[in-house]
Every structure is written in structure tokens, then in C-alpha cells.
Amino acid sequence: MEKRITTPLTAEKVKDLRAGDSVLISGTVYTARDAAHKRLVDLLDKGEKLPIDVEDAIIYYVGPTPTKPGNAFGSAGPTTSYRMDPYAPRLLDIGLKGMIGKGLRSEEVIDAIKRNTGVYFAAIGGAAALIGKSVVKAELIAYEDLGAEAIRKLEVKDLPVVVVIDSEGNNLYQEGQQAYLDSLK
InterPro entries given for it (predicted)? Predict the structure, then answer.
């Protein structure tokens, strides 16, 4: 089932999403990968303010290619999410609601998703140019020294994703595999 959501991503919106749902996201999405995540958690450890407000926010694990003239953003393929697993529970615990990436997540992240009414989306690998076209505006927010991995604030329109882990912990990767195996019987 295809759904449309607009940020901020509140707990009420998250509760309506189920593993396997196709979703088109519009609104604000932040970018950050592992180096930026480490810096964010280091700031939390020091009791300092983050450069972004993660409350009801979505972070997309992406390091875009250089932006071509006339475009707001470069190609935007998802990064493997497990690299953010050491940091994601901490961010979920302070209000982050959504994460976009690809691949499996740890049990600690899944527990934090359930505990905090969060959601994990997958972006389609191999569709980076198409995904990049969903970005209508991009602004560098923090950590310019990280280059493509700096934190950016994106304004997106109809960014295509799939719910992989919903707020109840249902996991499309497991359910899809089981459905396939059941179909072979």
C-alpha cells in the first residue's frame, strides 16, 4: 500500500506505517552518516546542543554525489545502515522518529525503534539519480569538513521509500523471506 507523509514525522504518523508499505515523504529530511553520527553522540555525551533538532525528524544515511548545475542535490543512494547502529538508539531516545538507509539493523536499534515509536525506511539502492530528483532544496548545516558526509537539511517532495521496520518491530526483511519460503511449500 502506498502512503504519503509530510514531516515532521510524529508518533501518530509512525503508528500508521506498516512493514512493507511504500511511502512518499515530503518535507524536511536531514542527511548524516557514521562520522556525523559519532559527532552528534559525542555532543550528547558532553551535554552540548546538537546542530539539528532531531525531535520528530528523519535522518537519511546518504553521501550524495556532487550536484549538477540546475539540480538541488546530487545522486542520493542510501548508505548501509548498520554503520549507524552504535549511535541510532541514542538519537531515537531523544526524539528521532525515522531513519532511511539500506540493509539490516541490530537488535538494539530495533528495540529503540519499538521503545520510541520510530520507523526504519529503506531507499532503493541503484536508484540514486531518481532519489536525488526528489530533493528540491539542500542546505549545509554542520560538519562541512566531512564533505559529502556533512549534515544537510533537505527539502524533499515524494521521496520514495519502503517501511522495513515499523514501530512494532515488524521487519520486512524477515517477513519477506519467510513469505518466499512459504510459497515454495
Answer: Fe-S_hydro-lyase_TtdB-typ_cat, Fe-S_hydroAse_TtdB_cat_sf
